[in-house]
Specification:
Blueprint: H1 2-19, E1 23-31, E2 36-46, E3 49-56, E4 59-67, E5 74-83, E6 87-99, E7 107-122, E8 127-144
Protein name: Outer membrane protein beta-barrel domain-containing protein
Keywords: Signal
Signal peptide: 1-24
């Protein structure tokens, strides 16, 4: 299920990038949108729409966001990905971001995520083949260059 979600997100990212010129942005931050503990996020901003892919120290994510405010500072969206500590089998979440200087400008990015994460029950040396779905609640903070 998650694998097909990642493929769909990648297809959306590529199609948006190839159809219209978009503003590329790079963020550094921590949280699920950044691939876990610490990571980098590459975003393409096209008007009110943003698609992104991120790679972190412990995972990766892809997502879409829609800017819903007149001042371009508030966005909601979705994110899917995986990280090795709490969501080895993947996660899917609704996201909210606040861009301190607007979605197209450099500045701080703060937000939260709510969704589901799947993790396997494992020992230090092997997986026990038990997968549990748990609630995902996360915060993220980053800086957009």
């Amino acid at each position: 299920m998650l694998n097909s979600s990642l493929k769909a997100a990648a297809l959306i990212l590529l199609s948006v990038a190839s159809v219209n010129p978009a503003l590329a942005q790079v963020d550094i931050g921590a949280g699920y949108q950044y691939g876990g503990a610490l990571g980098a996020k590459y975003s393409l901003v096209q008007g009110e729409h943003t698609v992104y892919a991120s790679l972190g120290l412990i995972g990766a994510a892809m997502g879409y966001q829609f800017v819903f405010s007149n001042n371009n500072k508030h966005a909601i969206g979705i994110a899917v990905g995986s990280e090795v500590i709490t969501s080895e089998k993947g996660f899917a979440a609704f996201t909210y971001n606040y861009y301190s200087q607007g979605v197209s400008a450099s500045g701080w990015v703060l937000g939260g995520s709510v969704g589901a994460r799947r993790e396997d029950k494992a020992s230090m040396f092997a997986s026990l083949d038990e997968v549990h779905t748990k609630t995902l609640v996360g915060i993220h903070v980053g800086y957009r260059f």
